[in-house]
Design goal:
Helix content: over 70%
Shape: globular
CATH superfamily: MFS general substrate transporter like domains
Structural class: mainly alpha
Order of helices and strands: HHHHHHHHHHHHHHHHEEHHHH
CATH class: Mainly Alpha
CATH topology: Growth Hormone, Chain: A
Strand content: under 5%
Largest sheet: 2 strands, antiparallel
Radius of gyration: 22 Å
Number of strands: 2
Number of domains: 1
CATH architecture: Up-down Bundle
Distance between the termini: 19 Å
Length: 473
């Protein structure tokens, strides 16, 4: 809607909503990154082999795809804000249990619990922001989610580094006699508690309120966001986008009777699944989850590996600010294409660097100083291209590309596939790295980046500047 421009909107309230909603992204990032420096502790405490470590790390992602799948449909029945409150509680409880339990099964269950919160926050935060932000700044506002995810990851890397350095090693006892690696999980309880408290001070999504027939409440929220005149017209637009005798449900992702759809699903849902899956198949979370392990495999010390992680995190945040500056100007699709091409090129450079290494007596890859530098530079270029493009843009598009009537259900399906792909990548990397080597492993991710370029070129439709009520599919 043309009148709903940024200068007419209550930007202070919108920014406050974005700030609160994206704490979920911060926790998403922190919970995903905290495990990066805890793997020696996990291995020692629970007697894990490579397969066991892969499952323990990946168990978070089991919860993620469960949480993402149910979050969309729960949000259609309970509301976006209430489901995020539930996620905050799961974040808090999961962090405390992971930091304290001595039982591996309980640890995994707590990690799955935290994963459910991560999955829910990952799909609901961008959707909620998209539903309250004006169209002309919606991309920038939703990109804040990715900045917070990377901030959370970087915070986890920094906390891990400080705690490990203070204790001497991550497996050494620290405060209260608790090992430093356990404090890496316990520290997450602080932002989780802040997130839970802050969620009681922001309004519910007006589009959810309309879907539930609570038009007066929706009108009140819209007035606070856009003012009386714009709110009245926007409320009617939102009401018109919902069928009077139909309420959102999971089966809405199926192609309507009489229309064509691959395997029975709407084409727009398949596009969402494609974006969600290929964001993971390019291998970004290998660096985020296994960064310390990766660089140690490449011949760096534990201390240097943790520092490289911090540098990668800072570079990622800087790249996201570039996205904020351009996403509502040049659009979503061009950024995805640029990102796919850049990631493919930098990944192939990493493959070359790893292929030049030699194995020591213990089977560990050893790189020359020159090739080690090439690998680190290429990895950070890869991180830059990802975070200028697929990192934030995938979440922006999932939050806005689906019609109002199917948004919650489509997010549930796309979110499920996103986290399932994430799980497969995290679960298989330790085995791939030791079985076929880093060069072959990264060749797979590079090929996926190439494929993603052509899929985006063929199937993705630009959403820049379009009102949510104008989305089709």
């Amino acid at each position: 809607m043309e009148d709903a421009s940024g200068d007419r909107a209550n930007l202070a309230l919108i920014m406050a909503i974005v700030a609160v909603a994206t704490i979920g992204g911060l926790l998403f990032g922190y919970d995903s990154g905290a495990v990066n420096g805890t793997q020696p502790g996990l291995t020692a405490a629970f007697g894990l082999d490579e397969s066991g470590l892969g499952f323990t790390v990946g168990s978070l992602l089991i919860g993620c795809f469960v949480g993402a799948f149910f979050a969309g449909t729960l949000a259609d029945s309970m509301g976006r804000r209430n489901v995020m409150r539930l996620a905050a509680v799961l974040f808090l409880i999961g962090a405390l249990i992971q930091g304290l339990t001595a039982d591996h099964s309980i640890f995994v269950l707590a990690r799955i619990m935290g994963g459910m919160a991560v999955g829910a926050a990952s799909v609901l935060s961008p959707a909620y922001i998209s539903e309250v932000a004006p169209a002309n700044i919606r991309g920038r506002m939703t990109t804040v989610q990715q900045i917070m995810i990377i901030t959370g990851l970087t915070a986890a890397f920094l906390v891990n580094y400080v705690l490990a350095a203070a204790a001497g090693e991550s497996t050494n006892a620290f405060w209260l006699g608790i090992a430093a690696w356990r404090w890496m999980y316990l520290m997450q309880a602080i932002p989780a508690a802040v997130f839970l408290a802050a969620l009681f001070f922001i309004p519910e999504s007006p589009r959810f309120l309309v879907a539930k027939g609570r038009h007066e409440e929706a009108g009140g929220v819209l007035v606070r966001l856009f003012g009386e005149v714009v709110a009245r017209a926007k409320l009617q637009e939102i009401r018109d986008s919902f069928t009077a005798d139909h309420r959102p449900r999971l089966r809405d992702v199926l192609a309507p009777a009489g229309t064509r759809g691959l395997l029975g699903m709407r084409p727009i849902v398949w596009v969402g699944i494609m974006l969600a899956v290929f964001q993971q198949l390019v291998g970004i979370n290998v660096i985020f989850y296994y960064g310390a392990t990766l660089w140690q495999l490449a011949g760096f010390t534990e201390n240097d590996s943790l520092l490289i992680n911090i540098v990668s995190g800072v570079v990622s945040i800087a790249a996201c600010f570039v996205t904020i500056a351009v996403i509502d100007r040049i659009g979503r699709k061009p950024l995805l294409l640029i990102g796919s091409a850049g990631m493919a090129a930098s990944l192939f450079v990493m493959v070359f660097a790893f292929s030049q290494g030699t194995l020591d007596a213990g089977g560990k890859l050893v790189l020359s100083t020159g090739m080690g530098t090439v690998a680190v530079v290429a990895a950070n270029l890869y991180v830059i291209f990802f975070n200028v493009s697929w990192g934030p843009v995938m979440w922006v598009m999932l939050g806005e590309m689906f019609p109002n009537q199917i948004r919650g259900s489509a997010l549930a399906v796309a979110g499920f596939f996103q986290w399932f792909a994430n799980y497969l990548v995290a679960q298989t990397f330790p085995v791939m790295a030791t079985g076929i080597g880093l060069a072959a492993s990264y060749s797979f991710y590079a090929v996926c980046a190439v494929i993603s370029f052509f899929l985006v070129k063929r199937f993705v439709t630009e959403t820049k500047g379009k009102e949510l009520e104008a989305m089709e599919g």
